[in-house]
Amino acid sequence: MQTYAIPELKKIAIQIEALAEPDNGFKPEAIKLLFQMQVNAAVSVIVAMTALTMQLVQEAINAILCAVRDLVNGAVGIPLI
Question: What are phi and psi of 2, to 5 degrees?
């Protein structure tokens, strides 16, 4: 998350700073649109990172289950895993 989420949040802060400049050359409607675009980009990155994290957790759980499969199945007497 530090590699992707924190830089995205910093981009939002930089964008807000740039849009707050009195001589930024943008109309209020454009400022709102640019800000929302930056927020949407940040949300997309954080959602993607969450999905990747979930995938890594699932892979770890699968590896653990694979490692204990024979022991668990033998203990319960049926192919549970």
Answer: -60, -35
Say how far apart CA 57 and CA 69 lie, in whole Å: 18
Residues ≥6 apart with Cβ < 8 Å to 7: none
Q: 3-state DSSP call for residue 15?
A: helix
Give the Cα separation of 38 and 14 in Å (integer). Answer: 10
pLDDT band for position 9 (cuts 50, 70, 90): confident
- Residue 4, SS3 per DSSP: coil
CA distance 50 to 41: 14
Degrees (nearest 5) of the Cα angle 37, 41, 44?
A: 135
